[in-house]
Amino acid sequence: MMKPVPKLSVVISVTFVFCLFLLFQLHVSNLFGKNPQITHQVNNFFISFASSSHHQTQNLTRLTNESDGNRAKHPEEEDTCAGRYIYMHNIPSTFNDDIIKDCRALIKWFTMCPFMVNSGLGPQVSETDNKTTSHVLTSKTGSWYATNQFLLAVIFRERMKHYECLTNDSSLASAFYVPYYPGFDVSRHLWGYNTTVRDELGIKLAKWLRERPEWRKMNGRDHFFVTGRIGWDFRRGLDDDSEWGSKLMMLPEFSKMTMLSIETTAWTNEFAVPYPTYFHPKSLSEVRRWQMKVRSVKRKYLFSFVGAPRPQMDGSIRGEIIKQCLASHGRCKFLDCNKGQDCDNPVKVMEVFQRSVFCLQPRGDSYTRRSIFDSILAGCIPVFFHPGSGYNQYMWYFPKDYTKYSVYIPESGMKNGMVSLRNLLGKIDWVSIMRMRKEVVELIPKIIYTKPGLVGPEKIEDAFEIAVDRVIERVAMVKRMMETGKDLQSEYSQTRDLKKLE
């Protein structure tokens, strides 16, 4: 391989040739002074030679620069973020960081302070701290955390800070993210506060956004935010202190924005995203190893239920589920969340789900439960009793054909005692079980929130990435409708009937 000629030696060579050219010109002029044609030909020869030397010098300089790692970007190179840029509003801290400073007051019944560490992921979980020899987690990479179900807004904001297509140029943005913590804003004021206090911060943020130049681009329809609570907490219809929640989504500004929540109502600008689980891996290979584990683990129980009875709830089927589980002669495992602290222990919870073929997911205080995603993470097939618990919620994440990954048993069958869980689930053939489990295991990357900063081949298309992509797609669709004058309400609405299964 030829070594590049040093720049200085090339310059000296060209200079030397040019000097010879001048001397020769003088001699030629004296010798052929009366024949300009010959003089012109000689001149052309030296000019051509000098030009060739100059271009060679430029080429050598370019090669040297490239060998030094200074290769320039070609203008025709594709922008991989084109159409995917997100602009994150720099809202005042009173709308996020200041809210969670007093972590003891965020929820009335317990303190959230222990869960605020590690950017909202919570404290790391060590299997050695638990009295188990079954190696439930089998991860020495520090990817398991005691994550609280209400911390999604904090987790999402941290992920957005590391989003590969985050931009400071709002003119490039396809969507605008508002890093507000509405879940904690409302939860700290749910008991003992009037509606004015509950609504105050949301009204102030609406005014702040309305005055931003970015808002005028699509009058807020290209803006989105995330909440760690269910959608109903933000749709109070009356200004009565006895009514639940805030009226955030009833404000004109927020009624145009897209809200991502752990459980949605049937409104057109709300979309459900997964509850945060305990698993926050750092690489795709780590996810693959976990999938291999839960795919092959031995499952002792036919079905299980992790939860507590709801005697105060009219129509709850939990009592019947618990009764049948306890009478199953060892075919069912019941982890009673009213006793001890086992349900707050990720290892204990994951151990039950890993050892079960089917995991029962009746309604909780609302339609959905965090347990749905913990069980899927363990490779356990979810059993739903109401379409609003999963099928009409997580449309961006779950297959449309619910029979691929779950079992559906109508609540009515459980209420009248006609359905025997042991008999019904026991009759499902092994081929169908393996098919459903395969689908459940393949869902795992989609329903977890990975650690911030993953890029390149180890990047995971997780719940965060899917949510951002779908928001961008939705904004693009709304923009097209606005440009063509179509009715937004009728065109981009999604039918989500929470009362019947279609």
Automatic annotation (TrEMBL):
Superkingdom of this entry's organism? Eukaryota
Q: How does it sit in the membrane?
A: Single-pass type II membrane protein
Report whether Lipid biosynthesis shows up as a keyword of the record: no
Cell compartment(s), UniProt? Golgi apparatus membrane
Checking InterPro entries in the record gives: Exostosin (IPR004263), Exostosin_GT47 (IPR040911)
Molecular functions (GO terms): glycosyltransferase activity
* Residue ranges of every copy of the Exostosin GT47 domain listed in the record: 81-416
Main location per UniProt? Golgi
Query: Per UniProt, which keywords does this protein have?
Result: Glycosyltransferase, Golgi apparatus, Signal-anchor, Transferase, Transmembrane
Mention any one GO cellular component term assigned to this protein in its UniProt record. Golgi membrane
Q: Which family does it belong to?
A: Belongs to the glycosyltransferase 47 family.
Name the record gives this protein: Probable xyloglucan galactosyltransferase GT12
Species in which this protein is naturally found: Raphanus sativus
